[in-house]
Design brief:
The structure holds 2 protein chains of 2 kinds. In chain A, 40% of the residues are buried. In chain A, 79% of the residues lie in helices and 0% in strands. The two termini of chain A are 15 Å apart. Chain A is elongated. By secondary structure, chain A is mostly helical. Chain A has 6 helices and no strands. By secondary structure, chain B is α+β, with helices and mostly antiparallel strands. Chain B is built from 5 helices and 12 strands. The longest helix of chain B has 77 residues. Chain B is rod-shaped, with a radius of gyration of 45 Å. Chain B starts with a helix and ends with a helix. The chains are: A mainly alpha, B alpha+beta. Chains A and B meet through α1, α5 and α6 of A and β1 and α4 of B.
């Protein structure tokens, strides 16, 4: 298998993981715990950004956003733009400032999920200007953040393990 | 040696012994057969033979059973396959039955609506996804533009109004519910005819409720009154049940009153809905926006 083919295979695998996460997020009610849904799509493209850098991160973010926009009433390209920016920032941080390890994954995922949840909250609750928007932060967003953070750790470990295995195989073939 | 044996067999002693043995044998057989009682020799022989026989039978049965398993495994396999196919068929029948029962209940609810509103053109649709990031219960249906769905088409269940299509894609569409502050439905109190606007707020949406805003100060609406769509504006048809009033409060931002409404539809439990693709009095504005 050539280098190009391996690259395609790698991106296809990440694409499939992202699609599975999307299905779990929107169409798999069994993933809910005490009525709280996680957002596994965000950790998947953040981890892709950590592994493959800013360009891949932004492209996976865009792909994830396009998928999510099909089920959203926020408006055209809302998630696509938001996730592209998130993926790009995560990729840039990993390329220039941080190392690819579990601590960075937790920090980046926390930042990405919090940013997206707060942005959604502002758009769908605060900007509408009706009633007190703050109770929702505690009752809805905080449990969602906690659940997604818990999920983000196995997602990172799984994706990073798959990637390191592939790198080892590639090194063995080269030597 | 041979000579000695030959002499023994030819002797009178042997002949007497043989006669005694034959007589004893005949007596035993006749006695046993006639009286069905066990004779002493059978008891003795039986006592000796029985454990061996038992062991032998046990071993034999064990082997027999062991080999029977192999011998009959094909039969068992065939039987197992037959039973499995029967189970599969029964399970499939049960699923069909449950599906038909569900469909029957689903359509039975709409039958009344259709009878009351023969002008409604309804399209059955199924929920395929929910948006967990949206606090107002937005969900996605499996029908889109190719099926005749358009933006602003009302969505109902047998219980009442759910919302409207806010985004129609080619093969699926997104529904905005009455819990969403973006949505405004002209509604009236069915008993008192007091008019207002059904809309959502974040706080009420979290509890699965909405509000009937802009009720006049002189309203006579009361708790448990049913709220239905008024048909004004032409987006929603007249008379669709929305919910019932839980309490009436004064609006802090203006002089009007508002009522907290508990929708009749349980948004978390929605599975199948009907999209009203056409009805008498549908607004031309909605038609234009929907591209009809």
């Amino acid at each position: 298998m050539g280098k190009g083919e391996r690259k395609y295979l790698h991106y296809t695998a990440f694409g499939i993981v992202l699609f599975v996460a999307f299905i779990l997020q929107y169409s798999f009610p069994m993933i809910k715990i005490f009525g709280i849904s996680p957002l596994p799509v965000i950790p998947v493209f953040v981890c892709a950004a950590m592994i493959d850098g800013d360009l891949a991160g932004s492209m996976f973010g865009l792909f994830a956003g396009i998928l999510c926009d099909t089920n959203s009433a926020y408006g055209a390209c809302y998630h696509a733009i938001l996730y592209l920016i998130t993926g790009l920032v995560c990729g840039l941080l990993i390329t220039h400032l941080m190392q690819n390890n579990l601590i960075s994954a937790i920090v980046l995922n926390f930042g990405a999920i919090t940013f997206n949840l707060l942005f959604n909250w502002m758009v769908s609750v605060v900007f509408i200007g009706r009633g007190n928007p703050f109770p929702m932060l505690v009752t809805d967003l905080l449990p969602m953040l906690a659940y997604t953070m818990v999920l983000s750790i196995p997602i990172y470990l799984l994706m990073n393990y798959g990637m390191s295995k592939r790198k080892k195989q590639y090194k063995r073939i080269r030597t | 040696m041979n000579e000695t044996l030959r002499m023994f067999f030819k002797s009178t002693r042997f002949k007497v012994l043989l006669m005694i043995l034959v007589c004893l044998a005949i007596i035993s057989v006749v006695y046993g057969t006639l009286t069905n009682w066990s004779t002493p020799q059978t008891n003795i022989v039986g006592a000796i033979v029985k454990p061996v026989q038992k062991f032998s039978k046990g071993v034999s049965d064990g082997f027999d059973d062991f080999f029977k398993k192999f011998k009959k495994s094909e039969t068992y396999e065939a039987e197992q396959k037959q039973l499995q196919s029967q189970i599969n068929k029964l399970t499939s029948d049960l699923l069909d039955y449950q599906e038909i029962k569900q469909q029957n209940e689903f359509y039975k609810g709409f039958f009344e609506i259709k009878q009351k509103n023969p002008d409604f053109k309804m399209l059955p649709s199924t929920l395929i996804a929910r948006d967990p990031t949206d606090p107002y219960g937005t969900f996605t249906l499996d029908k889109g533009i190719v099926d005749g769905v358009a933006v602003y088409d009302p969505v109902i269940t047998a219980e009442g109004l759910v919302g409207y299509i806010s985004d129609a894609q080619s093969t699926q569409s997104v529904v905005t519910t009455v819990l969403n502050p973006k949505l405004n439905v002209s509604a009236i109190d069915r008993r008192t005819r007091d008019a207002g606007n059904i809309t959502g707020t974040p706080e009420l949406a979290a509890k699965g409720k909405c509000k009937l805003a802009y009720l006049p100060r002189s309203n006579s609406a009361a708790e448990n009154d049913y709220i239905v769509s008024s048909g004004a504006g032409g987006v929603f048809p007249e008379g669709l049940l929305i919910g019932n009033i839980e309490e009436i409060k004064q609006d802090t931002q203006n002089i009007s009153f508002y009522a907290v409404v508990v929708p009749v539809v349980k948004f978390d439990e929605i599975r199948d809905v009907m999209v009203i693709t056409s009805f008498n009095g549908q607004s031309s504005i909605a038609d234009k926006k929907a591209g009809k």
